[in-house]
Write a structure and sequence with these properties.
Layout: E1 16-22, H1 25-34, E2 42-48, H2 50-59, E3 64-68, H3 76-86, E4 91-96, H4 101-108, E5 113-116, H5 121-137, H6 142-148, E6 154-155, H7 157-167, H8 174-181, H9 185-196, H10 209-216, H11 218-227, E7 232-233, H12 236-241, H13 244-260, H14 265-277, H15 280-288, H16 290-303, H17 307-315, H18 319-329, H19 334-341, H20 356-370, H21 386-391, H22 398-424
Parallel strand pairs: 1-2, 1-3, 3-4, 4-5, 6-7
Length: about 425
Amino acid sequence: MCPDGAGRQVERNPMKRILFVDDEIAVLDGLRNLLHKRRREWDMTFALGAQAALEELARAPFDVVVSDMRMPGMDGADLLRVVKDQYPGVARVILSSHAEQDMVSRALAVAQQYLYKPCDGEVLRGVIERVCQLQSLVTGTAVREIVGRLDRLPSIPDTYFTLTRSIEDPTVRTDDIARIVQRDPAMCVKVLQLVNSAYFGLSRPMSSVAHAISYLGLDLLRGLALTLNVFAATDPRTSARMSFEKLQQRAILTARVAKQLVADPNEAEAAFTAGLVHDIGTIILALTVPDRHAEVVRRSLATRTPSHIVERELLGVTHAEVGGYLLGVWGLPLPIVEAVAYHHGLPAERCTRMDAAMALYVADALAAHALSGPHRPGDAAAGLDMSALEAAGVARELPRWRDLAEREARAMLAREMNRREVITL
């Protein structure tokens, strides 16, 4: 039987409440007509201006707020900041016809999705529908509120400062920046959020961090990511509670292994990126519920129980679900979202082939095994459901994959040791 993230409850709420905000009545009327066919699925309210929106929010709960950016008095970014602070469980979408860098950066600090105005009706419906589907898959509102409070993720100090120095070098190449960004889960997530926002109008989702950086260009990355603080160096208080370096090490190894388990190039790229960011939910929990997360770590170590099982017991949610939900509402490609959400247990219907989700599920277990020290023969299957691999027709490959993971781990640790020796010298 294939593991399925045991005990997850599906929230039953057939009518999602959506609040649309604009300062022009004609625009609101246009949205009402555009979305008329959704009236049996969504309970829609149309507010004329930010103040009216705040009154509606105080009157009854909403699931999603879609706001225009430029409005007199309180603009869309200011409105969504209030929503973020007072109603963190509400998903936030911004609509803007303005491409100025300061406008984009202000919106990205508080909006989980950024849509260019005028927005294609199918795009708008698709974004809202996806957010509502993600909300229906999480237990209660805990995950939504945890993710809703975030506007940025912490980056590992060494990586952050290396990027800061490199991006100001006029001779730096895009490939050099991509290699730096790929070392840091938070930076990977934010770059992919930027490039996959409807603002950039891509014809299909982009899963490759390197391609995303090339598409965005160093000037935009410099302006949005550094000068305007899309990324932030790690808070020392957070660093004291958890090892970002160990998370980074495991993420890189998992990504390298996952990519080599998939034959299809597109699936392999999605598997690689998913590996880089698969434990982003752990960072979120450490930031938003630090004391409870510390207890999860303590109990997991004391009882030798996997952290995601202890998280389920103490928090009612796992870091995999938190990470998957964050990536989903931030608009990352669905294969990456699903792979992250299911990396500790695939639904039975997903145990049919070696895709990005299956590759990450296997690679995560193999990476943990390879980094845990000397092993006995056969230990690499620990934590993996062999029936899932058999259902996908790949169980016989496990010994080869175990050797691959251990070779990658040895090579990575050797590179890290050499790097530290260079720094010491």
